[in-house]
Amino acid sequence: KTETPKPVEKLIFKNSEYIISSDELDLSLLKKASENLKIEYKTVKIEDVSSIKYSDEITFFVICIVRKENKSKDENRGNFYERKYVFVNNSDGKILAEESDAGLGYYENEGLRVGKTYILKNLLKLDEKNQAIAFTTAVYSNSRVVVYSEEKLTIMTFDGSKMKKLLYEYPIRSVNGDSDGSGTYQIETLETGISISDAQSNGYYDLLVSKIFSYEAAAEEDLENDIQKMNDLKVKKEFQRLRYNGKTYSFKKDDQNRFL
Questions:
Q1: pTM score, two decimals?
Q2: DSSP states of 50-72 as a string?
Q3: How far apart are CA 152 and CA 150, in angstroms?
Q4: Is 253 helix (H, G, I), strand (E, B) or coil?
Q5: What local confidence, expressed as pLDDT, does residue 135 receive?
Q6: CA 222 to CA 182: how far, in whole Å?
Q7: 24, 54 in Cβ contact below 8 A?
């Protein structure tokens, strides 16, 4: 009896640079959805809107809404940018489910900025019946001295009335460190790749995560202060299996640098 070959793990992405995002955007459907959300269309930041067709009947939008600053409250914070997840009916833009993500709302003059949310072009198949949407959002520092950015992955399904986050804000890329702006810096970077296993936990396929931590440091020569020119590079690899626990793919928050 010949053994059935083991299916190859389905690669979601090799690392964040290889992510192919959806380029769909039905502006007339977005306009209808905005009306049904009772949002003025002119307050939608179109360049920060992403969407994907979830089925023949349903489209998913990530909408960025600009809330004008209320000057009497605070002069310095600037406008507020709200991030909203919306499932809509393709025929009439009827809202099937909506939710604002408080973690991705920000004021324009804050130290941290939130980038556009990018939806992966391909829907994921994590169990036998449901398709899942994956999307990534980067948060980054506005500072020239402190180097900080973090890109996180969320995976969501929709059952026709409720959206469900299977995985919420899993870090897939981060950069931490500091720089003097003239060639002296130390930076640690995390890059991950994620694939779908053929093993299941509680009805959903496990997610396999490969992590590469790299550390890079450089110093410009400064003879007055007895600093010699220096370059240093270190790399560490790790692996993690994310299992569905019946509610979500659970993971422990890991803010620890491996080198810095």
A1: 0.89
A2: EEEE-SSSEEEEEEEEEE---TT
A3: 6
A4: coil
A5: 98
A6: 12
A7: no
